[in-house]
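Hmm, how's this folded?
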Amino acid sequence: MRALFLMCCLSGLAGCSVILPSTPHSTTPERSCAPLHPTRFQPQIEEPAADAQPELSLSAQSLEVARVMNVVPLLTRLTALERAGETHSMAFLELQQSLTDRLLLTLFEISSLTAELVCERDRADQVADRMDEIDASVVKRLTLASIVIGGVAAVVSGGLGLAGAASDASDAAALAGGVVSAVFGGTALFAGSKQHFSHERNLLGELWENPEQSRALSPAIWCFLQGHRTDEARNTREEIMQAWRQQGRLGAPGSAGEQARIALIFGPGGTYTSTDLRARASMLETFEAHIQLLSEELESFLREMIQRRIQGEPQERPLS
């Protein structure tokens, strides 16, 4: 009886955590998420002379967007030509085209990063969904086994009692059935699978490590993350991390669980639970939402530039 009890306990403990075999979604971080040619560069524009820099008549938000795109020198030269009345010159048109090119490049960089974030989020969700399905199947089987064994033990114990057999045999059958049923039922409560999940190109890790120059993000995106969108002391990158903590994605502050999750999520990969994968997917979604805010600011910048151009155009005189 003791041997049966020990065997059941050990089997229950072993069934609490199962390492699942890897799948293409979990072992191929690039899969189709990362860009094929992640060339990151920032075109340089010649700075005008300090004494020739006119004041830019733009809002503080538009000036910040211009700084993100690195077009402040370009806007300075455009403003100088506008005030000189050379809005139809070839130099002015070339500068306008350069500004448009830079705006389009930034928009494409936002789209590219958003696509990668969505792809990585879906990849984590797909692996987590598979793990949840396997866990649900295991729990169902363990619960069914617990019910069947408990019922069989009750039938055997009752049958022995009705047959007038020794009470020790009846008690032993009831005890064995109860122990086995409890082991399977308890195992069902703590059953959970794990799986290795790789992300060597880790956008979340790039944000967490905060290098001087990003290896995965474009200079414009990185400049946006280091800038301040509001009057608060935190920049956009710090706002994202604050949102992660408020959502509880990293665990209790200062706990061992937080340190383990930081090493797991911000590293090259490791053994994940379904909960860890859901947390990673949620963090990617928060990152994506903040990146999308740059698109809104680019729209406001473009509207302000169009309005500025309309106001600067000479009005046609009505016919007498």
